């Protein structure tokens, strides 16, 4: 019971852990033992077996940071030592183990956070690369539609991170979402969203990474924010279909 309580604490502080998995494991074992009438053979140990299943589920859910097991054990030793006072030797050993295991736990937790951040960034990059339009000129049209009126989601997901930062800097906003709102507020009401039609993508499709410069300076949003008027669109990587995104902005000549 003490081990389960301590491990539940670590489950509560772990965003990736699922508290219901160990609870379900304990309940399932308890129900199965009752339905199969094995509780009579266990002679009063049914709840103990279910508790072991609960503990196994907790160990599984905290396996991302095994130092949590050492930390929980160290806390148990410390508590046991405190109950034996004034015989302080066990408490001293528990305290020393707590310090060592806490340091290990923190280092491992930092590594896990870094790994999760990298995974999230890679997933976001892949998602962005998969979104785009099959012709470069459509990018200008979609930018116009997203800026008259403001549609931050449609615009920002079309921009690479560097282009998002440029949009925020050009409008003096904190981020891309706010920058779209500022840019849209500068576009006169009722302005057309259509952009000058450019040539379509060459056939066969260009190689991934190909950059094409598009002139949006004559559009309503290009005149409102000339620092963003020249749009460099790039052929996305790792996609079978030729799609185009905004790689960066350049000022109008």
Give a written overview of the molecule.
This protein is mostly helical and 253 residues long. It is 59% helix and 7% strand. It has a 3-stranded antiparallel beta sheet with strand order 1-2-3. A hairpin with an 8-residue loop joins strand 2 (230-235) and strand 3 (244-250). Helix 1 crosses helix 5, helix 2 runs antiparallel to helix 4 and helix 5 (67-83) runs antiparallel to helix 6 (89-129). The chain is elongated. The N and C termini lie far apart (73 Å).
| Rg, Cα atoms, Å | 30 Å
* Overall form: elongated
Helix content: 55-70%
According to DSSP, the number of beta strands is: 3
Question: Order of strands across the widest beta sheet?
Answer: 1-2-3
Q: Which secondary-structure class do the elements indicate?
A: mainly alpha
Mean pLDDT: 78
How would you sum up the major sheet?
3 strands, antiparallel
Q: What fraction of residues sit in β-strands?
A: 5-15%
